[in-house]
Amino acid sequence: MTTPELERAVLVGGTGRSGTTIAGRVLHHHPALALTTPRELRFLTGKGGIIDTLGPLLPGGTPTESTPETLARRMRQRFYRWRKPSGIEEGLHRTVDPEVLEAAVNHYLAESPDDPIGAARRLVFDIIPSTLRKRPQCRWVDSTPTNAQRVQAMHELLPKAQVVHMMRDGRDVAVSFANQSFGPDDPLEALQMWGERMLRSFAEECQVPSDVVLRVDLADWVGADGVESLRSVCDFLGVDRDPAFETWFRENVTSEAMHPGRWRRDLTPDVAEELDRRYTQWCALLTEQYPQFPLPRAT
After folding, report:
1. Alpha carbon 270 to chain centroid, angstroms
2. Helix (H, G, I), strand (E, B) or coil at 275
């Protein structure tokens, strides 16, 4: 795969628990797209990754203590192999041979002093083909949630990449987080995190051309009009509306699997009332600051 093709990444992002995993798996079933293995690369927009290391060299970046040497160490350690709360080992080790990783990291370290952004870009290009397994001809899809909060920097690093921002009713996001072994276990704290991440995502989207980001409401993917929403994603990415892809989508993306409105069912009435009150405040703030961006549909 050539460098121009590698640049045309599809970066799925969101607040966490907003549909990024579902979106990555859905897009993987399109014949022109392939989800990376692991599906969350993390070394791009994750904490201590490429974007953090480049810091103020990229738009929207901030000063950081991360250096090329610390990034190299993380590539060999934390990003290569990490353990999920379930105990399963995840990371680049699943598809990237140690020799490939070592060559890519050494190449990056050699070039970074003279061309830090170019070296980081080539590091991406050296790693990605291995993560696509038997579909190297496809555009690659990464579903790390923080992609939505680092849009400006990723647009500078990969100018031809496009971002699919998955959105979901913040009350359902909050309850979903509270039921996981990671993130806030208090739905009110989780809602605060949702609001802050939505603000950051919208602020980032204001700084890039309109054809870089597509906002997709998870609630629009279920029901009679779900395929129409899916087609809008295909049109945005410039890929065909594939009949087999749409058939798979109809059969596998269901309302039951997405638990819309679970905040009403899973919480006690008093907590649900307080969550709803705070959510209304967040929606008002988001609408006030970014009236051009529609909010997720209430569920």
Report:
1. 33
2. helix
What the block records as the tokens of 43 is 């070394």
Lowest mean pLDDT among 20-29, 85-94, 179-188, 267-276: 179-188
Q: How far apart are CA 150 and CA 107, in angstroms?
A: 25
CA–CA separation, 121 and 140 (whole Å)? 15
What does the block give as tokens for 20?
Answer: 């990024």
Domain ranges of the chain: 3-168+209-257
pLDDT in tens, 5-51: 798 999 999 999 999 999 999 999 999 999 999 999 999 999 999 99
Question: How far lies 51's CA from each of 19, 36, 135, in Å?
Answer: 23, 19, 26
Options 1.20.1510, 3.30.200, 3.40.50, 3.40.1130; CATH of 3-168+209-257: 3.40.50
